[in-house]
Amino acid sequence: MIRIFELKNIISIKDFERKDIDYILEEASKLEKIAKSKEVCEELKGKILGLMFFEPSTRTRMSFETAIKRLGGDGIGFENSGSSSVSKGESIADTAKMFEGYCDALVIRHELEGVSKFISDIVDVPVINAGDGAGQHPTQTLLDLYTIKKEIGEIDNLNIALIGDLKYGRTVHSLSNALGLYKNVTIYLVSPPELKMPNEVFHDINKTNVTWKEVETIEEIIDDVDVLYVTRIQKERFGDIDDYLKIKGAYVVNKKMLEGKDLIVMHPLPRIDEIDTDVDDTKYNKYFTQAANAVPVRMAILKTLIKNNPK
Ligand code: CP
Fold first, then answer.
1. Of 29, 64, 125, 310, which has the fewest beta carbons less than 10 angstroms from its beta carbon?
2. Closest ligand 1 atom to the C-alpha of 109?
């Protein structure tokens, strides 16, 4: 089947239809050989990717940079506001306009929701949201779905537990939205009362066929799930550090609790203490594979957006 991908920007996973996700996952699958063989192709030879990271990142920034280089292009950018002229008072709008002049696409991470959307409205090159505050992280969701499909074989008919910081965790917001496009999916929402999924996300989930249930312990659902999707408590988004300290360490997945279970453990990373390192050497650990899958998935995203939208 010939598929067409029409989105110019990737701002929210809510802009995707299932056919768009299928398109990116299929392209990623085709590019995986290059990503894993450590080769470079010429798909985006001479193209420049702008990496505007106002907030810290390891995986997202490095995997986008790896992706553009494996496609034959290159990346430029900054890793915090302090190393750009934003620190001298230049506006985000002016900074984005400069990048538009230098680059074929922009990747934006910012602590405020809506910044990627704002930039996409004022530049002509494709804009990719690499995480905006507690809002969305759509490319993370695409690599999460890619990992689930590769490891389990399908995304329909799954029971998935989202664990930890469901209030501030943008990865679980985007993933919940995306799962609404699949059939017969149940989501278990495992969080302390203070970190429940926001009402806006419930509002979206309730428009889909997803079944969901809120619980407070992993033990309540561990026998019923195919995926444990664990998240970090987002310390940097708490107004009062004491509120964070009260909840810190609320959930820890360890090897003993997984023994005999038929499931995979995922995590967008970084991990603090919510998955014990004794899980790392077990068959349940798919979080490092998930992080590696970022390269073919982001290669697919860049190839698609930059080829579809030549400067
Ligand atoms: N998963 C993720 O977004 O990680 P980074 O914050 O390191 O980019």
1. 310
2. 8
Per residue in 223-271, pLDDT (tens digit) is: 999 999 999 998 888 888 888 888 888 899 999 999 999 999 999 999 9
Q: How far is the CA of 60 from the centre of ligand 1 (A)?
A: 5
Residues 269/293, Cβ–Cβ less than 8 Å: no
Domain range enclosing 131 = 13-136+292-308
- Same domain flag for 23 and 156: no
pLDDT for 1 beyond 70: no
Q: Tell me: pLDDT of 31 over 80.
A: yes
Return all residues near 229 (Cβ < 8 A) that are at least 6 apart. 144, 160, 161, 162, 163, 172, 175, 266, 267
Q: Ligand 1 centre from 2 Cα, in Å?
A: 32
* pLDDT tens string 135-182: 999 999 999 999 999 999 999 999 999 999 999 999 999 999 999 999
Kindly tell me the number of DSSP H helices and DSSP E strands found in the chain.
11, 9
- Cα-based torsion angle of the residue sequence 45, 137, 174, 216 in order, rounded to the nearest 10 degrees: 140
Residues 68 and 39 both lie in one domain: yes
Residue 167 maps to a domain: yes
Distance separating alpha carbons of residues 179 and 186, to the nearest angstrom: 9
> How far apart are the CA of 56 and the centre of ligand 1, in A?
8
Q: Are 8 and 309 in contact (CB under 8 A)?
A: yes
For residues 283 and 153, membership in a common domain is answered with yes
